[in-house]
Design brief:
- The longest helix has 23 residues, at 76-98.
- The protein is an alpha+beta fold.
- The chain has helices at 19-23, 76-98, 109-120, 125-141, 145-162, 167-184, 189-202, 206-213, 224-236, 240-253, 260-273, 277-289, 300-312, 316-330, 334-337, 349-360, and strands at 3-5, 34-43, 46-55, 60-70.
- Helix 7 runs antiparallel to helix 8 (206-213) and helix 11 (260-273) packs antiparallel against helix 12 (277-289).
- It has 16 helices and four strands.
- Helix content is 59%, strand content 9%.
- A four-stranded antiparallel beta sheet has the order 1-2-3-4.
- A hairpin with a 4-residue loop joins strand 3 and strand 4 (60-70).
Length: 364
C-alpha cells in the first residue's frame, strides 16, 4: 500500500548532472526559460518515473521520458541510476535542440548554463573560454547556487589548459565562486561535489575537500559528479582501489554524462598505479572512445596515462603514438614538461613519478 509522490523536481536534487540548473529558477530576475517536471510513484513493487522538460516562452515540450519498472525489493540504487540516466538524456536533447535556430534565438539562464557545461566537456581552449562567457550570461539572469559552483569548477579546466599560468588569479576566482555557492546552498550534493573538486585540484587543500564531502558521502550512489569527486579524493590520497571503485560507480551513474571520459580516465589511472597495466590500457582506450565526437581534441590526462601504461606493458610503439597526439595538441615536448613536478596538474606526487617514469621508458 506504499505510495510516494515526488512533486516537481524537489526529490531529484541529488540525482542528476544538470537538474539543479534547470530547476534553479528560485530568485531569478525573470521567469525560467525551461521547466522540468518530474514525478515518481511507488505502489507496492511497481515504480513509475516520468520526466518532461518544456520551453516556457512557447509552452512547447522539448523532451519527455516515462519508465515503469517492477522491483522484487526496493532497489533504490537502480531507481537513482535510471533517473540520473534520464536526466542526462534530457539535457543532451535540450542541448541539441538549443543548437537549432530559432530555439537558440532566445537563451535564458538554463539554456546558457546547459550550453556552458556541455562546452566544458568539449575540452578545447576555445570551448573553455566560451563556457566562461555562457556561465556569466547564466548568472546574469539567475541566482541558482549551482551556477556559482559550476563557475568555480570551470577553474579546474582553465588551470589544466594554462598549465598553471596565472595560478594566483585562478585560485582567487575559485575561492570567490566556491564561497558564494556554499553560502547560497550548502546542502546540495552537486554543489558540494563541484566545490570539493575545486579545493582538491585547484586550491590543493585536500583536508577542506574531505570536509566538504563528509555530509554527502552517503549519497554517492545517486550522483555521478559526487561519485567522481569522491573517486578523485581517494586518488589524491593514494587509495587507488577505492578510487577505481568510485570511478566505476561514476561511470555507471553517468553513462549519458558528457564527462564520462573523465570518470573512465580516473579508473585507468588507478589501475596504472596498482600495476594493472593491461586494464589501464583497456580503460584508457575506452576513455578516448567516450570523448564527444568531432571536437578534434583528446583529454590530456587520458593520453598521459595511456602512454605510461603502454610503456610499462612493453608496448612502446603504441605509447609513442599517444605521446605524438599529446605533443601535437600542446605544442610542447613532453619529456621537457615532465622534468619537474608540475603540482598544478598532479596533486599526488606518486602519480606524477609513475607517469613520468612510464613516459621516459618510451625512449622518446
Amino acid at each position: 500500500e506504499s505510495f510516494h509522490h515526488i512533486r516537481d523536481t524537489t526529490g531529484l536534487d541529488q540525482t542528476g548532472f544538470f537538474e539543479p540548473v534547470i530547476a534553479g529558477s528560485v530568485g531569478s530576475a525573470a521567469p525560467p526559460d525551461l521547466r522540468l517536471t518530474a514525478n515518481a510513484y511507488v505502489i507496492g513493487n511497481d515504480v513509475m518515473i516520468s520526466l518532461a522538460v518544456t520551453r516556457m516562452d512557447r509552452g512547447t515540450p522539448v523532451w519527455g521520458w516515462l519508465e515503469n519498472i517492477t522491483l522484487p525489493i526496493r532497489d533504490s540504487s537502480r531507481i537513482y541510476t535510471l533517473i540520473a540516466r534520464s536526466i542526462e538524456q534530457l539535457c543532451d536533447a535540450v542541448w541539441k535542440e538549443n543548437q537549432k535556430s530559432p530555439f537558440a534565438a532566445t537563451k535564458g539562464p538554463a539554456l546558457a548554463a546547459l550550453n556552458a557545461i556541455r562546452l566544458i566537456s568539449r575540452l578545447t581552449p576555445e570551448n573553455i573560454a566560451a563556457a566562461e562567457v555562457a556561465l556569466t550570461d547564466a548568472m546574469d539572469g539567475s541566482t541558482a547556487p549551482s551556477l556559482y559552483a559550476w563557475r568555480a569548477y570551470l577553474t579546474a579546466y582553465q588551470l589544466e589548459k594554462n598549465s598553471g599560468a596565472n595560478l594566483d588569479g585562478l585560485r582567487d576566482i575559485a575561492l570567490h565562486y566556491s564561497a558564494h555557492a556554499m553560502e547560497m546552498d550548502c546542502n546540495s550534493p552537486l554543489t558540494r561535489a563541484l566545490v570539493a573538486h575545486v579545493y582538491g585540484f585547484v586550491l590543493k587543500d585536500c583536508d577542506r575537500a574531505h570536509e566538504l564531502l563528509g555530509p554527502v558521502r552517503g549519497l554517492v550512489g545517486q550522483n555521478a559528479m559526487l561519485a567522481d569527486t569522491v573517486s578523485l579524493a581517494h586518488f589524491y590520497a593514494g587509495r587507488y582501489d577505492e578510487a577505481g571503485a568510485h570511478a566505476q560507480l561514476a561511470g555507471k551513474l553517468g553513462r549519458w554524462n558528457p564527462m564520462q571520459y573523465a570518470f573512465t580516465t580516473v579508473l585507468s589511472a588507478s589501475q596504472l598505479m596498482l600495476g594493472k597495466f593491461d586494464d589501464a590500457i583497456l580503460n584508457g582506450k575506452r576513455a578516448l572512445a567516450q570523448h564527444p565526437p568531432g571536437i578534434g581534441f583528446q583529454y590530456e590526462p587520458t593520453l598521459r596515462t595511456l602512454a605510461a601504461a603502454y610503456s610499462f606493458a612493453g608496448r612502446k610503439t603504441e605509447g609513442r603514438a599517444a605521446i605524438d597526439v599529446l605533443e601535437r595538441q600542446t605544442g610542447t615536448d613532453t619529456n621537457e614538461t615532465m622534468k619537474d613536478l608540475p603540482d598544478t596538474l598532479f596533486p599526488n606526487p606518486d602519480v606524477f613519478h609513475r607517469v613520468r617514469d612510464g613516459i621516459r621508458g618510451l625512449g622518446l
